[in-house]
Amino acid sequence: MPQSKILVDTNAYLRLAQTIDPLLFTPFGDLEYCLYILPELNDELSNHRLRTKFSWVDEERYIGNRKYFPAIGRKQKKAIDHAFQFVWGHVQKDLPGPSKIDALYIAYAIELNIPVVTDDQDMTELAAEFDVTAMPTLGLLKIMLDCSHINLKTIRGLIKYLRYKKDLPANLDKDYKQFFL
């Protein structure tokens, strides 16, 4: 059975990777869900501020888990580049919030017809503009729970930790009620 790929943006990755380890490239559920990042996430993590705040990203097990990316052919790469130019042009003209990497995630999602996990409201709005399925981190956790990949205790512990770190996803309380109550 082919994998059901899901892209995970930087914020979602940083919120989940320590709790669900390994997070990426580990199929789960009957639909073989498999989480991926883009290579550009590793470039973002080379930022000194992020590496200081999230020092664990330099640990070998996380570096090793971040080496898997969606496989794309030459034609798909061209199509993604074309979609990126279109999406980035839209951002520059009409929606000045998403970053270039956000636009690249949307371009991949368009071309590969896969969802993206993000709590970034600007990126969620951009995804909607291009009919890309965007789900919040808690939406992904619900899928993982339903597939018995994680349990409710893990989810509650993660949310408690995020509250402690003051790193709360947008709409946390609303999403928690929607997915888990």
Structural account:
The protein has 10 helices and 4 strands; from the N terminus they run βαβαααααβαβααα. It is 56% helix and 7% strand. It has helices at 10-16, 39-45, 48-53, 60-65, 74-94, 100-112, 121-129, 137-146, 152-165, 172-180; strands at residues 4-8, 33-36, 116-117, 134-135. The termini are far apart. Helix 7 (121-129) links the parallel strand 3 and strand 4 (134-135). It is an alpha/beta fold. The mean pLDDT is 95. The radius of gyration is 16 Å and the shape is globular. Strands 2-1-3-4 form a 4-stranded parallel sheet.
Describe how the helices and strands are arranged.
Blueprint: E1 4-8, H1 10-16, E2 33-36, H2 39-45, H3 48-53, H4 60-65, H5 74-94, H6 100-112, E3 116-117, H7 121-129, E4 134-135, H8 137-146, H9 152-165, H10 172-180
Parallel strand pairs: 1-2, 1-3, 3-4
Helix pairs in contact: 5-6
* Global mean pLDDT: 95
Helix-residue proportion: 55-70%
Shape: globular
Uncertain segments are none
Beta strand count: 4
- Coarse structural class: alpha/beta
Rounded to the nearest angstrom, the radius of gyration is: 16 Å
How far is the first residue's CA from the last residue's CA? Answer: 32 Å
Percent in strands: 5-15%
Order of strands, main sheet, comes to 2-1-3-4
Q: How would you characterize the largest beta sheet? A: 4 strands, parallel
The run of helices and strands is EHEHHHHHEHEHHH
Helix count, per DSSP? 10
